[in-house]
Amino acid sequence: MAGLALLAGAACRREEVDAPGAAAVARPQYRCPMHPTYVADRPGQCPICGMDLVPTRASPPPTGARRVLYYRSPMDPKVRSDQPARDSMGMDFVPVYADELEGEGSSVAGRATLALTPERRQFLGVQTAEVREAPLGRTIRTVGRLAVDERRVHHVHVKYEGYVERLDVDYTGARVRKGDHLLAIYSPELVATQQEYLLAWRAQKELGESGIPSVAQGGVDLLRAARRRLELWDIRDEDIAALEKKGVVTRTLDLHAETGGYVLMKNVVMGQRVTPQDTLFDIVDLSHLWVLADVYASDLPSIREGMVGEVRVSYLPGRAWRGRVTWISPVMEEKTRTVKVRLEVDNTGDDLKPDMFVDVYLKVGEGTGLVVPESAVIDTGDRKIVFLDHGDGRLEPRAVTLGVKQGDAYPVASGLAAGDRVVTAANFLIDSESSLKAAIASLGAPVSGERRP
CA–CA separation, 275 vs 205, rounded Å? Predict the structure, then answer.
């Protein structure tokens, strides 16, 4: 009889444990650390990822404050039951409470508002930050290529035919200053013109003493015409003065550099016959260079003429050259899908060389505006979402319109106001639970699950 009493007592205790709703009071819950939506009433491993379940505090009983709406399968949220049950694998259905679904509707399709207790927030590691107003500005970093300033390229020609009898600049890359001798040239035409000038110069001296005004004026006009012909051939005033001083024709005349710089092209050799069609030298002033930077179309709206940029090279750390944007290409490069932007920089020390690649930094200032931390933004591809913390435990999904990222923050175009607090940590876990909650809420009426024995 005593044995029967003990067996009856044990059966009664088992019925109390297995009674509907009793498990939620007596048994602790175990949750997957990677999948918080999976809950079990006994130790084990998560069927999704295989991680050991961790114990949590027991769920509060379904009292009047927390009313159970239905029970769902932890593996298939579409399988529901109006009372506690188990699935075919022996896993307990998870209760869904009314307060968990309060305010689940949101302005973001596919997302639901969550209500988290302080303990749950701490368990998930939720952190928030305030939406604040800050200076808006960013730096567009791109690569550029140094190029010669086309306005500082000088082609050296002669305007008469002749022969090179002395070559003073005899190699490519030579540096010349304005006025330096380039070569000496003999030209029969030039010799004849010099002779004409000397005759006109002497005639002007003799006819200038004539008492007849027309005769004196004729000598002046003859000299002016001869001098003008020499000037049209680019004979300098100094050479003409030397011709008058010597009073004899010079066999050769020197060709001088009209600008300083480097000889980047030399097409003449000793003894060569030259004509006005020949380019003898290309002299380029490299004290001022162009920087042709490649800017992508997404950054193009921020580029404007007159904005300041910096140019840096890797082999000279700490040095920067400042320049202004002076031209934006009206067409896009077909192969690189970029737009050329030209900056002009000073190169007095000749540290920069044409065709060198450089790093270009274009500073864009956009005033002030609201910014949100980058870690708060969830980019779903077709929209950007943040979770707004209302301060009473509710986390509301909010679709926002953002500008181009600036450092570790995004400027806010719409969707948030100054002082709002957004979730910056654990927001991907929250987003998963919000999506799951919205999916569960969108399902139809609960279907019967397998009853517990």
Answer: 35
